[in-house]
Design brief:
Strands 45, 46, 49, 50, 51 and 52 form a 6-stranded antiparallel sheet that branches. Strands 30-36-35-32-33 form a 5-stranded mixed sheet, with no helix packed on it. Strands 1-28-27-26 form a 4-stranded antiparallel sheet, with no helix packed on it. The longest helix has 23 residues. By secondary structure, the protein is mainly beta.
Length: about 775
């Protein structure tokens, strides 16, 4: 039985999940704002139905045009969109139309239920031009209508409730503005213009807005009145039940008490402008600008009853601190929505009993956005267009498109490069999410040897902000593919990103060593020699690693031919391989110079291009033609309590063919030497062919010194500077095993073996012994 606390926690969890789900369903996602027009663009207007959406804008120019006498000209441009298809810009479709002074707004447009496009233009002060297209804006018919008197505002064209057409114009006459309208059955033939409002008390009427619902046509307009000597604009509504043949008396719409700004103020003290009518649900819906005295204009909304009166209470859509202009209402997913502008484009939608407001455009500093226009698409969602004016005064049409895409994920292979073989079975990847205007929610991926396999569209790991790091195991050699897709918060999935991990853990075959040429006793013809081998049958060989090991004197193998010697040496020197998996050369040959007499083991292994090392091939051989040389490999010093330096010298050729007879210390290697020590005076002791001891030095000035040994046959061998004497008799031996040797030295450097690891090991062992001796003292 579940206890009450657990039940409460479960209930809270269910409510949280429901809230998150509801929030995800109600969020709206757009791509980043983008520029829509290449050239200048002003005063966009839009219209759409279930099958076609259009956007019309003005393109102004101060250049003269043939047949037009004015300060500037305007051309009209059009873009169309079918559901699920991209926008298609049709280019210039109308003009030129002349104007003087500031550019006016001269155009309105609609799409009727048969997908015909109607565009009404104030072509001149006395004429209205109609452009009609029946082929989605590819071609247009043009008709000119006489307005009858000077007009000052753009005409308004609308589709009546009965499918016929209404055209509203505003005539300026002396000190009055009056709305006139005309009707047409086909949009080509029009009745004479008639005055829309005949009430003599409403002398200034303008800016009509039309909608229709359930066989009725509704028109809202504004008219100026005086309130305590201050003119204010009030909104009126007229209704027609016969397609605009007749209209009801004007009904004052804005005669309500305002509970948002000043409930005690008279309705006539509020200024109301730029009404826009639409249909929301089953009601006519109106939005407009409303301002109290010198306050900021706010965006208001209200529903209408069938007779044009207010249904319920009006609502304030914008926040009290914002200034709103030119609201346009529309519906999407059965939700009322409104766009307006105030330097930026604002958007609000009705969620429950409140309006959720947000800024849509974020223009750069010193620029501004105006005239937001929505376009709804039955497949892609809705778009918002607007006019952007730069700091320099250039104008363009910008827009927000529904977020329908996600860029691909960047995959970083942390321990491999895509498409290149690696000697590993572990693939480590980091996923770098792409930038997305809606944000990346998570990722899905596959790990497979099938290059065409794509992930299922189900999130496997969520985006927490840090790039996800994943690890996968390749169970066998060959190509493996990591494929990833990303989903944004708008629900879009990206195209797959893919990297190839090629596991290669198979070593190459063994190389085949070619038996070197021997003398009749089974020894190499020279102690300077080259060993060759045949490359293994593999195409990915990157090089070879080899060892030449000195195993000892050859005296234990006297009287054996090469076959007997090889068998005996194999048995005696088992487990002597020291090969390191690093490439020493790419050719199938290794050369050696003047190696020691004795028994040697040479081994070679092939290395492929990812570092796999093949099996070892080895041979044993003997040498007996060594040419003696003298060289130094290590100089060691110990300072005793009296300050004397006891120097030991390690190398080769100290006693063979006679003992070293002289040792010198020199700063520059040139005569005269700073110090000289003679064997004949007992100043040092030759312990063996590889070691000299008991060289005692005192009073050596500061500096860096070379050490030289002189053999009676082979002459002088002098090192680079290897001893550093500092103040306080500090002795700092130098590293000289790979140092430069002057060309005039008689004896070049020589070693027992080419394997540098052995030399490093000997040096480290010697230094360790020195440390032990010093610590014992």
């Amino acid at each position: 039985m579940i206890g009450k606390p657990i039940k409460k926690l479960l209930l809270i969890a269910i409510l949280l999940i429901a809230c998150v789900s509801l929030y995800a369903q109600t969020r709206l996602f757009w791509e980043d704002p983008a520029r829509f027009t290449a050239g200048e663009g002003n005063f966009p207007v839009s219209s759409s139905n279930e099958h076609l959406s259009i956007l019309v804008w003005q393109e102004p120019s101060r250049r003269p045009a043939a047949g037009v006498s004015s300060e500037g000209i305007i051309h009209l441009a059009l873009a169309v969109k079918m559901p699920g298809q991209p926008w298609e810009q049709r280019g210039t479709i109308g003009g030129p139309y002349g104007y003087s002074g500031s550019e006016p707004s001269i155009v309105t447009a609609i799409v009727d239920d048969t997908n015909r496009i109607f565009i009404a233009v104030a072509a001149s002060p006395l004429e209205t031009e109609l452009l009609i297209s029946e082929d989605y804006g590819l071609t247009f018919e043009r008709f000119r209508l006489e307005s009858g008197a000077e007009t000052s505002l753009a005409p308004r064209i609308a589709v009546a409730a009965n499918g016929e057409y209404l055209l509203f114009i505003t005539r300026g006459r002396e000190e009055s503005l009056s709305i006139f309208y005309s009707r047409s059955v086909d949009g080509r033939t029009w009745d004479d213009f008639r005055q829309f409002e005949t009430d003599p008390r409403l002398r200034l009427t303008f800016l009509p807005s039309h909608t229709s619902l359930n066989g009725r046509d509704y028109v809202a307009f504004q008219s100026l009145t005086l309130n305590e000597g201050i003119p204010t604009a009030q909104l009126y509504v007229k209704v027609s039940n016969d397609g605009g043949r007749s209209w009801s008396a004007s009904r004052l719409f804005t005669n309500f008490q305002d509970r948002f700004i000043n409930a005690a103020a008279a309705a006539s003290s509020f200024d109301n402008q730029r009404a826009h009518l639409s249909v929301q649900g089953n009601d006519p819906f109106i939005v407009w600008e409303r301002r109290y005295r010198n306050g900021l204009s706010q965006i208001y909304a209200a529903r209408m009853q069938a007779d044009g009166s207010i249904s319920g209470d009006p609502e304030r859509v914008s926040s009290i601190s914002a200034f709103g202009q030119n609201p346009i209402a529309f519906s999407f997913d059965d939700t009322p929505m409104v766009v307006w502008f105030e330097q930026r484009i604002f958007f609000a939608r009705r969620l429950g009993s409140t309006w959720e407001e947000r800024v849509l455009s974020v223009a750069p500093a010193e620029s501004s956005d105006a005239f937001g226009r929505p376009v709804t698409d039955s497949v892609d969602g809705f778009f918002i267009f607007w006019q952007n004016t730069s700091q320099q005064g250039a104008t363009h049409i910008h827009y927000l498109a529904p977020d329908t895409s996600v860029s691909t994920v960047q995959i970083e292979g942390r321990n491999f490069t895509s498409g290149q073989k690696v000697r590993s079975d572990r693939a480590e990847v980091t996923l770098h999410p792409p930038y997305d205007s809606s944000g990346i929610q998570g990722f899905a991926w596959t790990w497979s040897q099938d290059e065409t396999l794509e992930p299922e569209r189900s999130i496997q790991t969520y985006n927490t902000g840090a790039p996800p790091e994943l690890e996968h195991h390749a169970e066998e050699d060959g190509s493996w593919f990591f494929t990833v897709i990303a989903q944004d918060f708008a629900g879009n999935w990206s195209r797959p990103s893919r990297v190839e991990f090629i596991r290669d853990t198979t070593p190459p075959p063994a190389a085949s060593i070619i038996q070197p040429e021997l003398d009749r006793d089974g020894y190499l013809l020279s102690n300077t020699f080259a060993l060759h081998w045949n490359a293994p049958p593999a195409s990915d060989i990157a090089g070879y690693t080899w060892d030449l090991q000195y195993l000892g004197a050859s005296s234990g193998f006297q009287g054996m031919d090469n076959e007997q010697f090889s068998a005996a040496a194999e048995e005696r020197f088992q487990g002597t391989s020291l090969s390191l998996p690093q490439i020493q050369g790419r050719d199938t040959v290794a050369s050696f110079e003047n190696q020691e007499n004795g028994v040697w083991r040479f081994s070679v292994r092939a290395v492929d291009d990812v570092g796999n090392v093949g099996p070892e091939s080895a041979i044993f051989f003997r040498t007996n033609k060594y040419i003696a040389r003298t060289y130094i490999t290590l100089v060691d010093t110990i300072e005793d309590e009296a300050g004397f330096l006891n120097i030991s010298i390690i190398g080769r050729g100290f006693s063979r063919g006679g003992n070293v007879r002289r040792i010198v210390l020199s700063r520059d290697g040139a005569l005269p030497f700073e110090r000289e020590f003679l064997l004949s005076r007992g100043e040092f002791r030759v312990e063996s062919d590889s070691e000299i001891r008991a060289l005692i030095v005192d009073g050596l000035p500061e500096g860096r010194y070379r050490v030289g040994v002189e053999h009676p046959v082979r002459g002088m061998h002098l090192t680079d500077p290897v001893l550093e004497i500092r103040e306080g008799r500090t002795v700092k031996p130098g590293d000289y095993t790979n140092a430069w040797k002057p060309l005039w030295l008689i004896t070049p450097e020589r070693r027992f073996t080419l394997n540098t690891v052995n030399l490093i090991f000997i040096a480290m062992l010697a230094l360790a012994l020195v440390g032990l001796i010093a610590s014992a003292r």
